[in-house]
């Protein structure tokens, strides 16, 4: 989980993360870029501040060892955290605190190689989709003697890579070697995102994740996950993804996400299908199946369009584009490397006529969030009914707790697209037992569709409808044609009793209360 870049403070105490003004990815492959990296689930850091910061950062004792490996060993630090994750089924409370390595944190400390002193750190920015984060550590003492690594390029197949980290089973820094076996877009497990990754034939054990991957003393990536069921297949985040993450923080002051066209496309390799849509023999492309209503593509593209080119790069019938010699990647990769609000020129075939459209790219959020790492779940309790927004963490926790899956909710999470900005799927996460909820106990894990015949848009909308209700009774229409009706005044009274009985600090999460104030 989330490798980190550790950024030194400027002399005035402000964090320094300004990069060279050149746009990414136009920086040269060997751009001097001092480096500190670690993972949300691991203790490792490499070392990456910008070249302009070199004058303000001590390079330590010039008589220190200068070999590539020794420099790398001096550049990797260990992260200790204490963290407490939310309880998504009972969203007003946290689970008990646990100690771990990485940045999913309540409290973070780092240590330098070979030293016992721990320094307090904090998260400046976290990009969960790309499994990276930026940490800050104050104090010149910590940065004294730290050595610097440079970013390299994307390794080639069969290149040998050294990964440095703190694998579990010991306290000291360690190294492992592996061979590059594949470079292609891969599912990033931590953020459930498809981004470019480097597959390595090496044992990336827990603890190596977050450490720098090196060739010739330069960083070519950051280790971040291993293949399930295999002890010798690991993955590293490549330099283009690292640069894209940092450039977003540099330019906007926060994590900006990775862009998407917002399309679902079908390969068009079948000759009958190609003939049906009037494709000439020399044409290649993919068929647009669906379009996210919140994307800019929705304004310009239509279902059954054929995507022929992306920024002048031909799209093959299987949806891939040329990457390097003998290598191809899905054309989605080109969109993911764009910065928010950059424009892509898309060539399409529509009803046998070719045309070009300019589409503005931006990150697109799914209807059901895949993670909630940086926030607590929102909730509202009324008459023993716990309302919350559907998230994938809730679904995972529900499955762990009850050894079953709410199949309809999983289907919504995987397939449903948002119809408008701010839309959420609101559910009853649990029914707290009370006289007023008698007979409703089996209606948990169902979607709430309407309140008093008004279709709800999100949890805040439901909260406002309930709080401002003037009718003697309130009706909730649920999925599967289920209905809950409560007498409003009795339910309000019961809410206070239930809150005291179950020791609930508030009937609603702070974000709902503040928004209603």
UniProtKB/TrEMBL annotation:
Taking the record's annotation, the residue ranges forming a coiled coil are none
Q: Which UniProt keywords apply?
A: Hydrolase, Protease, Serine protease
Domain Protease Do-like PDZ residue range list: 368-511
Question: Quick check: keyword RNA-binding in the entry?
Answer: no
- Transmembrane segments annotated in the record for this chain: none
GO BP terms, alphabetized: proteolysis
Presence of the UniProt keyword Isomerase in the record: no
This entry's Gene Ontology molecular function terms read: serine-type endopeptidase activity
Which protein family is it in?
Answer: Belongs to the peptidase S1C family.
Q: What is this protein called?
A: Protease Do-like PDZ domain-containing protein
Tell me what organism the protein belongs to. Answer: Eucalyptus grandis (Flooded gum)
Q: What is the lineage of its organism?
A: Eukaryota, Viridiplantae, Streptophyta, Embryophyta, Tracheophyta
